[in-house]
């Protein structure tokens, strides 16, 4: 494992990492104490509330509508994203471990940030949380984990916590603008999660461009078993994506339809990703990079229109196109971006999240604009497009325009926010690795050692 | 990794694989466009439908009864089967990757085939799909994935897509005959999935017998970590098998009982598989092959009678016997089949699926024949055995006879269909590997390489 | 792999292991036949029962309230605990495989033992089981699997079955005393599962102290990929812990609140575990041991008070403190225990289960004592603290006292029971490995070999 004393001094994080973790965790405790309370469905007053609202069954508690989907989303965040990033031959600890750290911090900060914007009761000054808040907090983390994909192996855990702090903050703001002010529909987060997260990560990575990254070239590949580990991530993302896109959809047909649409779109992506992957090799061999990533593009792109009456056939077409575009991105666009734009994107989030997310936003614009009462029914149109309250007069066509506008807002937030955060990360106090030390777990992880008898007393 | 230019020309799949993927995926898009629509529970007209049917709660949408089980089944198909097939030292990519490809294509074709047989509305000519169709489509794929177990490492991805196309078609037909015409009960698919899939795969493998497979003998074993990867598959199959057998059972006690029966049968299989595995070794050591496979036999065999009042004690006995039979199969029968019948069964599906599936069918015949009104209650007997409509006059004894007949139909379909498909696969256009190239990912998968900087521009 | 003929004779388990498996499994069949039946929700009489009880919807079957959580718990038991114990470089088969064996046997015995204590109908002499019994059986196994963590690599599978037989028995008794006689609340089992299981394992390990364990020192570490495998276990435990703590909580707000509390407590543990891990290394590097284990401490400690109105902020504090204490335990206490107390704790269960479980019990005492009607509502207080029936007159303060007493009972049962079982295991008939053969799969597992062509007939 080499002599650890040769290591450059600036990856010393024994002060900064514990300090950031402790300070931020204490801040969370204080802020939760001031702001966060159980909502009426998770509070012990529920039996009273039930009576008051004439609810006859505990099965009407939102917990039972959403908990199975929540757990699936939870698996996607921690195992899905985490293992997808274990593919590097010597950065599996960092892939899955820092993913864990980002998400565990991010979800706490997200509960607060999203709470202030969406669940704050102005009378009491409290945020009342339930299962839907937990799902949204996980979603919020997804944005930062996507960004981590572009930075994998090139940053310190302290930098990642900074990326997360700002990422969650930006996310909550853009989400508020897109979902509340523009009143877009985005059940699966094509725009608010994927387009935002993708461009946020790309902008940071672009600012942090490393001229001499080829010095750690020998560590940038995968080995046989690290690619199998990454498939764990891929498959859990792939399998549970219907839950991701349906987790916060409307009860009843909304969740049902979102799951079906995502299921078929993903299936379609697999076939076109395999086809283009095979086409891109001299004798038709497949590339694990494409199978691990491009197969998921259909799920990303279905996000914003998952709840819509896109028809199973429409969902298949979305998956079909995005599987092709995403694989093409890995074959052609990522190398191009790196050579021409000086953009180093370790996991290829440009192809899996940024572009399919953007496309998903625009697809939702088209599908929303094409909505009619005959297809949705009167009531269905109102509830699916959310044309209620002060948006009751909005036509489907107008809604389509707002969907497109929302996508642009997400991208703008990602690019501008990412550029700013990138410059913050350039301050030389965060303990990031040298160019010849990237993609190496040895920098931030202790070597494996015996678990018992560590004091060598025998 | 050797010089890739030495490879025999006939594994060139750069034309055939993309062509098959694109053509079939486009066909899916067209056929979905013509035939597939949302059913009343996933359509935006659900609020209207709810009112018309006097349904008071969204919780009555079938989605909430079945979605958690669906996701468990989904995990079994993609992670369960996929990782169970990663045990070979150099065929883990093919194991999990081609499993992914088969299932992603298969489920689309299954939605159509099963839809035409089971969910077609003759007035509109449309197939209306909901969550139960997704579960059934996953089930349908399971049959083909079982067959893949016998072929693992010896066929090309193009051949696998052919196996899947015909497999799903045959499955839908035999399922229609068994479940609709013979009116058998088979909640967990002992006969329609496991017996059919098992014999289908064995018949194909028998036709494709390779005289000189010993030329790739050095690749047929596992390595330490590939066996650990396979345990991921085993455990997810084992844990979620109660969901598999209860996913499409009747609401209420049906699903509840199916889960309990499967849970205890599986537990029992583990102990007898361990016992026989230990007995079969000179000093009592355990064999990972048995632990990875035979522990699941109880779940397979409980499939057809999962919903019946077999009693927890009956389920334990089923698991007890099948754990023994399955392990015995791995120790004695598989080597025998190969030597005497020229049958090369890479994963031993004969012992895990074919035989326990067949036994499961016959067990269900006995249990059905023994059903009485005092045990089931009048209403319970009707709903559990499905003795309604034009089958209202069928006695439990007659139903038992039909269960046995259904098992035979499944086996016959598997053997005949598999033999025919095997001969189709012998046409030398599918790019299958040479005998000395089997069990080797290098044939169809690109070597691992750096993900960024692929153009070598530094 | 060395020459297997050199192995000491006493690891010969070809008689004892199959004998124990067969005898115990047959006993299970007989006892299930005598005692176990379906309860009213899983019996075919459910339609009748539903009418009699005026239940209008199948969704009221407890199956639908608890099955998703059950499956999550099931994953924790088999994949969570199983993979957490794969970290050793050459004991991954034993880690995941014996975990599988223990749990599969344990859950059957638990259904009986817990049934006799909790679900026995004195009129019919039968135990009526449903989904809640399955969850409790899984919980019961967790106690034994925790104990296995201390013994990992040092005992034979036969010994483990003995540990399980006695462990489940002791568990059922202490659980009966704590939950029924003392009437403690312990939804997530801080005391009955973690404190008991932890001290049970430690006491056994203390009795089985091996003077010369350093002879197998070279096998006590992890390798790179075995640590990644262990992260699979960690993450599935971490993600599904909210289901563990809410699985048998009260319907409605109880389950909802338990999930929220556990979710935030776990998030908090991650940050403080990372902080202390970094602090404990010279340059701030993280240790995989801490990330794999201490991050879970918050879930353990939240168990007993998961259902209480501890507030999200209170849950964060619990996670905060336990993350620190647990990591500190791995850094300082485990080495100390081994040097001074002759206690070899392979997985460090002292730090992950014993201490956080004990703390969880005492925390629940404080939280229960502080409960007021204004916070819980009158009805909520009664249902959350279980102050019904003959316990209706108990005040929250008294309940707090009983919670503390229950914790002490759990610890006492663990220590005394473990010591006795330890002495039983010292009888030299169980085939345990020699000191220089510990932590080595080769002792109980056959070497990997080709799966087809095993008879070498080519």
UniProtKB/TrEMBL annotation, chains A, B, C:
It comes from the Eukaryota. Its main location: membrane. InterPro entries: Ammonium/urea_transptr, NH4_transpt_AmtB-like_dom, RhesusRHD. It holds the Pfam family Ammonium_transp. It is a multi-pass membrane protein. Residues 59-427 form the Ammonium transporter AmtB-like domain. GO terms for cellular component: plasma membrane. Gene3D superfamilies: Ammonium transporter AmtB like domains. The chain crosses the membrane at residues 12-36, 73-91, 98-117, 129-151, 158-179, 191-209, 221-240, 260-279, 291-310, 316-337, 349-371, 404-425. It is found in: Cell membrane. One of its GO terms (molecular function) is ammonium channel activity. GO terms for biological process: ammonium homeostasis. Keywords: Ammonia transport, Cell membrane, Glycoprotein, Membrane, Transmembrane, Transmembrane helix, Transport. Functions as an ammonia transporter. May play a role in the elimination of ammonia in the gill. Homotrimer. Belongs to the ammonium transporter (TC 2.A.49) family. Rh subfamily. This is Rh family, C glycoprotein a.
């Amino acid at each position: 494992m080499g002599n650890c004393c040769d290591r450059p001094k600036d990856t010393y994080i024994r002060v900064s990492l514990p300090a950031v973790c402790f300070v931020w965790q204490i801040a969370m405790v204080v802020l939760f104490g001031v702001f966060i309370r159980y909502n009426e469905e998770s509070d012990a007053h529920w039996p009273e509330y039930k009576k008051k609202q004439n609810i006859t069954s505990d099965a009407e508690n939102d917990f039972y509508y959403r908990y199975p989907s929540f757990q699936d989303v939870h698996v996607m965040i921690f195992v899905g994203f985490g293992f997808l990033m274990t593919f590097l031959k010597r950065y599996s600890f960092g892939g899955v471990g820092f993913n864990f750290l980002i998400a565990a911090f991010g979800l706490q900060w997200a509960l607060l940030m999203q709470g202030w914007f969406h669940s704050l009761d102005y009378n009491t000054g409290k945020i009342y949380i339930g299962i839907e808040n937990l799902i949204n907090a996980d979603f919020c983390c997804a944005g930062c984990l996507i960004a981590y994909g572009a930075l994998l192996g090139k940053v310190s855990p302290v930098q990642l916590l900074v990326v997360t702090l700002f990422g969650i903050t930006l996310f909550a703001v853009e989400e508020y603008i897109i979902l509340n002010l523009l009143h877009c529909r985005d059940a699966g987060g094509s725009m608010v999660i994927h387009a935002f997260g993708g461009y946020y990560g790309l902008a940071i990575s672009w600012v942090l461009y490393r001229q001499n990254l080829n010095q750690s070239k020998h560590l940038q590949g995968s080995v046989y078993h690290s690619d199998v580990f990454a498939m764990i991530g891929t498959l859990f993302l792939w399998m549970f994506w219907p839950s991701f896109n349906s987790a916060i959809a409307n009860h009843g047909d909304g969740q049902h339809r979102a799951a079906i649409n995502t299921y078929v779109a993903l299936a379609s992506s697999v076939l076109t990703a395999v086809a283009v992957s095979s086409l891109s090799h001299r004798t038709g061999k497949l590339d694990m990079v494409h199978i691990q990533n491009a197969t998921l593009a259909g799920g990303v792109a279905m996000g914003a229109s998952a709840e819509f009456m896109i028809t199973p056939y429409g969902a298949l077409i979305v998956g079909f196109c995005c599987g092709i575009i995403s694989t093409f991105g890995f074959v052609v666009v990522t190398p191009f971006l790196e050579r021409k734009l000086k953009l180093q994107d370790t996991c290829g989030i440009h192809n899996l999240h940024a572009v399919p997310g953007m496309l998903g936003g625009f697809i939702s614009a088209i599908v929303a604009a094409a909505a009619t009462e005959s297809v949705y029914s009167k009531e269905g149109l109102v509830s699916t497009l959310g044309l209620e309250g002060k948006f009751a007069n909005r036509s489907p066509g107008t809604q389509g325009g707002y969907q497109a506008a929302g996508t642009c807002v997400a991208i703008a937030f990602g690019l501008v926010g990412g550029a700013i955060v990138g410059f913050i990360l350039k301050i030389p106090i965060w303990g990031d690795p040298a160019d010849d030390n990237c993609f190496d777990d040895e920098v931030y992880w202790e070597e494996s050692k015996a678990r018992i008898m560590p004091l060598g007393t025998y």
